[in-house]
Amino acid sequence: MLATKETIQEIKRTVERCVGQKVILKTNKGRKKVQVREGVLEEVYPNVFIVRLDEGLKSERMVSFSYSDILTETVELSVSEPVVRVQLS
Fold first, then answer.
1. How confident is the model at residue 30 (pLDDT cuts 50, 70, 90)?
2. Quick one: pLDDT at residue 86?
3. What's the confidence (pLDDT) of residue 89?
4. In what order do the strands lie in the sheet with 75-79?
5. Which of 6, 54, 76, 79 could be stapled to 26 by a disulfide with Cβ–Cβ 3.0 to 4.6 Å?
6. Are 77 and 70 spatial neighbours (Cβ–Cβ below 8 Å)?
7. What is the pLDDT of residue 66?
8. Strand 22-30 to 33-44 pairing
9. Residue in 74, 70, 52, 80 with CA at minimum distance from that of residue 12
């Protein structure tokens, strides 16, 4: 698939719709190493998007990725399914 400006813009529009939602990031670290982390999609900029990762023990970290990372499949971004809780009376 040839990457065009329209392709990157479509990826950006898709990512923009997920701002504020919990997401799962799957990053390809090379040599068959894949890292899966969960965080909240914080902000979207013209060339990058920011995800706040919860690393436990009251520690948070902000990471940024470009839209071309999604296009080249270096990063896979998916929205976490919301947890539904049912309270019985």
1. confident
2. 54
3. 47
4. 60-66, 48-54, 33-44, 22-30, 75-79
5. 76
6. yes
7. 94
8. antiparallel
9. 70
Task: Tell how many helices (H) and how many strands (E) occur in the chain.
Answer: 2, 5
Contact (CB, 8 A) for 60 and 52? yes
pTM given for the model: 0.78
State which residues form the domain around 27: 5-79
Question: Residue 31 falls within a domain, yes or no?
Answer: yes
> Can you give the length of the chain in residues?
89
Q: Tell me the Ramachandran region of residue 82: left when phi exceeds 0, alpha when psi lies from -120 to 50, beta otherwise.
A: beta
Kindly report the CATH number assigned to the domain that includes residue 29: 2.30.30.100
Per residue, the 3-state secondary structure of 29-65, as one string, reads EECCEEEEEEEEEEEECCCEEEEEEECCCCCEEEEEE
* Residue carrying structure tokens 């040839």: 2
